[in-house]
Amino acid sequence: MTDPIYAIGDIHGQLDELHRVLALIEADGGPDARVVFLGDYVDRGPDSQKVIDLLIEGQQAGRDWITLLGNHDRMFAWFMEDVPRHDPHLLVGYHWLHDRLGGTETLQSYGLSYDTMTRLEDLHAEAKEIVPHAHVDFLRGLRPMFETPDLAFVHAGIRPGIPLTQQSENDLVWIRQNFHTYAKPHPKLIVHGHTPVNVATHYGNRINLDSGAGYGKPLSAAVFEGKSCWQLTDQGRIALAPRSAFSSG
Question: Which sequence spans correspond to the domains of the chain?
Answer without folding.
Answer: 59-143, 144-211+228-249
